[in-house]
Design a protein that fits this description.
B: alpha/beta, four-stranded parallel β-sheet, globular
Chain lengths: 372, 438
Amino acid sequence: MERADRAGYIERQREAHGRRSIAVLPVHYPKALLTAHDVLAVELWGPPGAPRSNEAGRLQTYVCAVVRNALAFLAAGQADCADALLVPHTCDSLQGLATLTSDFGGWKKPRLVFQHPRGGERASARRFVEAELRALSLELERLCDRSLDAGRLTWALELHARIDGCRARLLGQRRRVALTDRELYALLRRGEGLWPEEHLAELEAAIAASLREQPAQEGIPVLVTGYVPEPAGFLEALNEAGAYIAADDYAAVGRRIVPRRAAGVDPWNELVENHFFAVPCPTRGADWSERMRYLAELASRASVKGVVIHVQKFCEPELFDVPAIRKTFERVGLPLLYLEGELESELSGQARTRLEAFVEILGSRGSKVVAA
Amino acid sequence: VIGRRVQYELAGRVVGPFMLQLQAWQKQVTRRKRARKPGDFGPPLECTRKLKELMSLHYLQGRYADGAVPVAWVTSGFPVELLRPLGFHTVYPENHAAMCGVVRVVPELSDAAEKEGYARDLCSYARTDIGSILTGKTPAGRLPKPDLLACCTNICQTVLYWYKALADHFQVPLVLLDTPYVFGKAAPHHGSYVREQLGELVAVAERVAGRRVEAGALEEIVRSSKEGAALWGQCLATAKARPAPWTGIDGFFHMAPIVALRGSEACNAYYRLLLDELEDRVRRGVGGLREEKHRLLWDNLPMWYAVRELSQLLASQGFNFVCTSYTNAWAEAGINVDPKDPYGSIAKTYTHIILNQDLANRTDILRRLARDYACDGAVLHSDRSCKPYSIGQIDLKERLSKELGIPMLLLEADHSDPRAWAPGPGENRISAFMESFA
């Protein structure tokens, strides 16, 4: 679904199913809970490109483009088709945006927040997650004017587990998926605005049509870690240079997949478990050693030949982990490219050249396999 | 251990005080030789010498702390009251980074951190301290290695990333107090979450210190902390007088004890002394400036590397920062701790720090400060390194300027890294701002 179609899609969902919609800011939120409430989540990652209004000027230029563009977009009324705004507590800037739009204007409809416990898994954090989930659920009940059916929650969790299963399959078996990176990421990211059942149908159809018995990718496999795969031109440039993303650690994509399900627990507990089963992400204050171990394993599993750190300027959660990521891959002899963007609509010529040169270096290094 | 402990105690009780007395005597002699020219400022505070002694002694003793007593590196918003009964020597990396800012060594230290892969867009306090660890360079002589890292997210999420880097470097436990952001009122489960974490982190701190927190000792330290915050608040409040007996810039330096020595008798004794001096100056009509014409509010952290130049520029035209939201934060929150309910009150107090509350609350605080201190202007420091403090300032300025009918200036810089400050254009803007008062 193209961004321009989103407003129409939201309207159609409302007319056909009486479904409310919520604009959701990055990154992590309990999507299954929204689905259980029959609420359509429409994610707002900027959007990329130039800010949609002068309201971006209400934030300093040292605030990341995701937040500045979101303010410009919201304040220009371009998300007014949604019934509410959900701001997960991802970073200081998004937290600031949540209070700014409410206290100084930019969003007039209900604003919900979801606060993650920062730091590792502790008894207090588990109880806090459950309490936050229940508090959000009550807000959603108020918004939709109907109470949550426990059976719906079980159904929604099952639905999202199937979606995650498909996404994990496409990313985990990337080499056998006959899609370009641009096609694959467009498919995966359609879930940011589609009703989950429709997204699942698309994913299943893509698996049936594109997952081959034999390798379908011949390029150089690389691991990409970063915030969001924007601009899409980055993906094209990578493929054109002769590489492909064999291992994904984008906050917007791979890090949002819950890799396993809690067995035999009630749906609320499963929601809590999903929080702690999730892939380590700096926006939730993940433990460094756990994250580095995860990244090393991800690289090893996909036998990647190089690593691209693709971050947004001023993104503190991502930037603080960069030295540790460098060290992790230096240790196993994997070359690394650092690319920083500002949510541009097109990849700069300079970035493209650096990407091409990097892939060329990888190609000239032969077939060195990464040690586990 | 015994040898280190003896060194530590000697440094704090004998050698340090002696050296500092000697240093002070030498300075006095030098000062007599070089007669001070009358400037735009009022007579300097007598207490400044005591402040230097107090903080120098703290850092001097710190050089011998590791191996002698448990050492904790702590964020400024962490409830240090819980660590004091366990005998921790506390080091405040933010305070240390500010010191590096004052002596202008941040670019050099930051370069070392940047070489390691830390981006220049990250907080300059974090870059400074990481650079200091990597190079071993510090104006404090030496910082003791931590046995424990204690971090609270009530000032920003940055400290979590920063302290994770420290934990990785030192391979010591990191205890985290995660305070959910307060939109309007804190939800009940937010309070219980913070309260529960206090128990979790105390268990870790006790294990590291090898002893238990005794209820009586904790109660005493909380009482002392509350008194310290109240005394600091009274010191700040003396600036409501006309002329204000000191400058806001003085306040930035004199806040060091409430940040780094909160909960100790040394901190409170110092503020009693300072309060006496300030009240005496009010009685005698002695101002922080020789002639106070305008009273300003400062928002956000100071620009440590440029405070002298800025205050000089402003003082030359009779402008004084009579209050700052930053120094006020240490008075306003700290008085809410309660010795009768240490854990409950600590949870509540440390959740309701200015930076952990929404912009509506911040607007109220700034409005109140501007009115209480009769400010006729304000400077809002848009600080590249502190997003929680800086986001919203553009709207804040517009709203408060209209409401209060006073001119406000948004000044873009950084609290510690001089490379983010353009002195020429910046000083031009300040001059233009001052002219608008004519």
